[in-house]
Amino acid sequence: MQPFIPFARPTIDEAMVAAVAETLRSRWLTTGPRAAAFEQALSERFGGRPVRCVTSATAALELALELLEVGAGDEVILPAQSFFVTGNLVERAGATAVFVDVELRSRNADLDAAEAAVTPRTKVFMPTHYNAPLDAERLARFRARHGVRVLEDAALAIGSKSGGRPVGATGDLVSFSFHPNKNLTTIEGGALVVNDAREAAIVEALRFHGIRRLADGTRDVERAGAKYNFSDVSARLGLEQLAHLDEWCAARERLARRYFECLAGDDLLAPERLPLPPDENPGHSWNMFTVLLPLEAMRRTRKDFIDAMAAEGIGIGISYEAIHLTSLYRAKGFAEGRFPVSERIARETVTLPLFPEMRDADVERVCETLRRVMRRRTA
Ligand SMILES: Cc1ncc(COP(=O)(O)O)c(C=O)c1O
């Protein structure tokens, strides 16, 4: 049996282990100098914009919606194809989710549909950088034209560039994830890029109980905060990881090219079933390599395919289900047929293994197995 290839795996080297061990030995574990240094390093990458780290991208997005005072009566425009978190947080804020469909290959929100969805109640547009970086200039025009705040869900996009500049260096509010499946990990963690010191101060307060220190040495709370502060242990790992980010993104792109070479010409995988190739997708950080399965031609279910791949030692993921078809949103009247592209992706998508330590031979093995399993008849 050949070794198992998971669909994602973080790179952890001995320097990272030593850096974390040294932090543990220091006895300063929670938010402190290393968290500040990590925020500073991210800020430098983002052209000096303020960055505040928290315990996850979920926390960063939640605090961003709170910073923007999103609540009852407000509408938030978001793609129907993304991770559940966006739909959940709009619901938790008491606002109304206004879904739009996505484009098939980039899987990003259809920006024309998003423009058409703006109403006087629209407060925020929350697009996800998915299989391509979002167009920074178009987002800026969207914001200027409609007076709507833009919260970029860049959970998958640390290391991406849009128009030659790092995602995070431009735009309004930008949120990143450092979960182990992402291009840089701090175990769990996230970051929010904001516009100025005022917004940074609000996020700082909200991530730690809303506490404000008074001149007499006591503390006060004006606005009920959460407990989402970032640990120095995570930050130290993040600093070590950040030094490798560009090299890892380059490795991901190289492996993505190998996928395209190995899958080229397969009559079951028309180009529309593959992501945009690297030459048509500059700046993409290749967090995932996704494929739309030709389920009808295969005459087997996706579950069956995933189980067969696992039996051959290959891990397959699914990103994502359609948010408007969750029970949460069905109960509000959403049903099949509203966002056909998102629904097709939700039905057919699989995520193939892609992480910097993969070798070309691993990609070749995944492709050879994929081709074989797609054509294997079920009993
Ligand atoms: C698109 C997207 N946004 C947000 C998140 C949330 O990230 P976290 O796990 O850091 O909260 C994820 C997690 O996978 C994601 O895929």
Unreliable segments (pLDDT under 50, ≥5 consecutive)?
A: none
Distance between the termini: 23 Å
List the ions, cofactors and other small molecules found in this model: pyridoxal-5'-phosphate
The assigned structural class equals: alpha/beta
Beta-strand segment tally: 13
> Helix and strand string, N-terminal first?
HHEHEHEHEHEEEEEHEEHHEHHHHEH
Percent of residues in β-strands = 5-15%
The portion of residues assigned to helices is: 25-40%
Radius of gyration: 21 Å
The major β-sheet equals: 7 strands, mixed
User: Helix count?
Assistant: 14
Instruction: Characterize the overall form.
Output: globular
Main-sheet strand order equals 1-9-8-5-4-2-3
Average pLDDT number: 98
The gist of it:
The protein is built from 14 helices and 13 strands. The chain is an alpha/beta fold and about 375 residues long. The protein has a 7-stranded mixed β-sheet with strand order 1-9-8-5-4-2-3, sandwiched between helices. It has a two-stranded antiparallel sheet with strand order 6-7. A two-stranded antiparallel sheet has the order 10-11.
Task: Describe this protein's structure.
The structure is a single chain. Strand 6 (161-162) and strand 7 form a beta hairpin. Helix content is 39%, strand content 13%. The strands form four sheets. The protein has a seven-stranded mixed β-sheet, with helices on both faces. The protein has a two-stranded antiparallel sheet with strand order 6-7. Strands 10-11 form a two-stranded antiparallel ribbon. It has 14 helices and 13 strands. Helix 1 (14-26) packs antiparallel against helix 8 and helix 2 runs parallel beside helix 8 (232-242). The protein starts with 13 loop residues before the first helix and ends with a helix. With 379 residues, the protein is of the alpha/beta class. The site of pyridoxal-5'-phosphate has 13 residues, from helix 3.
